[in-house]
Design a protein that fits this description.
Length: about 325
């Protein structure tokens, strides 16, 4: 399955639904270009946050025509008081009305997240300028994680030169994962894969395959595999597996002959962020894979983080994915 077919599937899911996606970083050229393209396509309804004069200046400097693009300045938005009220409710005693007013005026990410929380937007895309933490922090505080999920994680959809489609997790959020957390990421990544039309076969990765090495780090993955099977007993899932045993049938026959996942895995759960980040970038730079993401999972509503090196096309695609996640959330 090619990258275009992933987007075609997401496009089909959202077509005609007029889903709203909010972009807090309105002064970024790439954000404006992607939003304008979406407005012209009519696939989603983009909402830009920021000072209208400053946004118009960026548009003028780059020859962009904003047209009827919806731009909201949080300082003057008619929904500001409503969002302040809902902010205080969501924080449950951890924030006063004054705190809420301050944060919603100071940080557009908080305003965008509150729009999603209040149902004024179906999802949010940010991170072209700010850090991953800037994007995730307000989402964790206000939207929060799904029941049974202790933390947000991030995946990359890896698209191979011949159209291979793989999921790598966690590649964006959690520096370390304990066994229970790794198990949750495995199950959540399988659900995300299904949303992209992938029939998940999950491998929990290690530097050991089925006891070939002994170490506390190996034990962690063994325990995570057991916990993941308890969480999703019908999910094709196995570990601990080295990457070659997980993806290559010949190697799997030698290293893990009794595994029903080894050699055929398409969802790969890395034991920590360092391994996941290095792994996806090796596949990208040396293997010729396209990395689509990071795509956040585990939240009650879709909020996605961009790389600060993202292109206009990356912003456009992540917005499509975000909208499709909103559809999947409503279905589930």
């Amino acid at each position: 399955m090619s990258n275009s077919s992933i987007l075609e599937m997401a496009t089909k899911a959202i077509d005609g639904k007029n889903l709203k996606i909010v972009f807090p970083e309105g002064k970024d050229k790439r954000i404006l270009e992607a939003a304008i393209k979406h407005r012209e396509d009519g696939l989603i309804h983009p909402i830009i946050l920021g000072d209208k004069g400053e946004i118009q200046k960026v548009a003028n400097e780059n020859g962009l025509h904003l047209g009827d693009l919806e731009i909201i300045d949080p300082h003057y938005d008619e929904n500001f008081d409503l969002l302040v009220e809902k902010f205080v409710e969501a924080r449950k005693g951890k924030a006063t009305k004054m705190d809420a007013e301050y944060m919603l005026k100071k940080d557009n990410n908080y305003y965008g997240v509150m729009m999603v929380k209040a149902g004024l937007s179906d999802g949010m895309v940010s991170g072209a300028v700010g850090t991953t933490g800037d994007t995730i922090r307000p989402a964790l505080q206000l939207i929060k994680t799904k029941p049974g999920v202790s933390r947000v994680s991030g995946i990359m959809v890896m698209i191979g030169p011949n159209g291979e489609q793989l999921i790598f997790a966690d590649t964006a959020v959690n520096i370390t994962l304990e066994s229970q957390e790794m198990a949750e990421v495995a199950v959540e990544s399988a659900e995300t894969a299904r949303g992209f039309g992938i029939d998940p076969r999950v491998a929990l990765l290690s530097f050991s395959t089925k006891g070939s090495a002994r170490h506390d780090l190996v034990d962690k993955v063994v325990k995570a595999t057991k916990k993941a099977k308890e969480l999703a007993p019908d999910l094709p899932l196995d570990g601990e597996l080295q990457f070659d045993a997980a993806i290559d049938p010949a190697t799997a026959k030698n290293k893990a002959p009794k595994s029903d996942v080894a050699g055929t895995a398409n969802v790969f759960i890395f034991p920590d962020l360092q391994a996941g980040n290095i792994g996806y970038k090796i596949a990208q730079r040396l293997g010729g894979y396209k990395a689509l993401g990071p795509i956040l999972q585990g939240l009650n509503a879709p909020v996605n983080d961009l790389s600060r090196g993202c292109s206009t096309q990356d912003v456009y695609e992540i917005a499509v994915i975000t909208a499709s996640q909103a559809v999947n959330n409503k279905i589930s």
